[in-house]
Amino acid sequence: MTLVVLVSIIIKTVLTEGVNMEKNRIQQWIRRWWWNAAGAMMFVVAVLGLFLPFVPAAPFALFAGACFARGSEKFHQYLMNSRLFGKMVRDWHEHRKISRGTWFALGVSAGMTVGFIVWWLL
C-alpha cells in the first residue's frame, strides 16, 4: 500500500510543471557549482605550475577557463583579464591556438619531468 502511495506522489511531482521548473533550476545551479569547483581546482594547479617545474601551468589554465566559461561568466572574465593567464586563455578562446612561448615552456617542463624520472630510475 505504501509503495503505491509513494509511486503516485512521485508521478504527481514529476508531472507538475512548477516542480519541474524548480528541479531544472536546482540542476542548473548544481551543474554550475561543479563547473566552478573544477575551474577553481584547475586554477590552483595552474598557479602551482608557475612555481613547480614538473607541473605545466598552460593546460590547467586553459581547462580552468573552459570550466569557468560553463560555470560563471564573472570568473571567466576574471581569468581572461588576469595578468598571469589572461593572454594564454584569450588566445585560445579567440584563435584556438597556443603561443610559441607557451609551447616552449610546456616542452621544457615535459623534458625536465622525463629527465628527472630517468635520472631517478637510474
Layout of secondary structure:
Blueprint: H1 2-15, H2 17-51, H3 58-71, H4 73-80, H5 86-95, H6 100-121
Quick one: how many beta strands?
A: 0
| Structural domain count | 1
**Low-confidence parts:** none
Strand content: under 5%
Average pLDDT works out at 80
Taking all Cα atoms into account, the compactness measure Rg is: 22 Å
Spatial separation of the terminal alpha carbons:
70 Å
Proportion of helical residues: over 70%
Order of helices and strands: HHHHHH
Structural class by sheet pairing and helices? mainly alpha
Oligomer category: single chain
Number of H- or I-type helical stretches: 6
For the biggest sheet, the summary is: none
Shape: elongated
Question: Can you put this structure into words, describing what you see?
Answer:
It is a single chain. The chain is mainly α and 122 residues long. The chain has one domain. Helices cover 84% and strands 0% of the residues. The longest helix is centred in the N-terminal third of the chain and has 35 residues, at 17-51.
What is shown here, in short?
The chain is mainly α and 122 residues long. The protein contains 6 helices and no strands. It has helices at residues 2-15, 17-51, 58-71, 73-80, 86-95, 100-121.
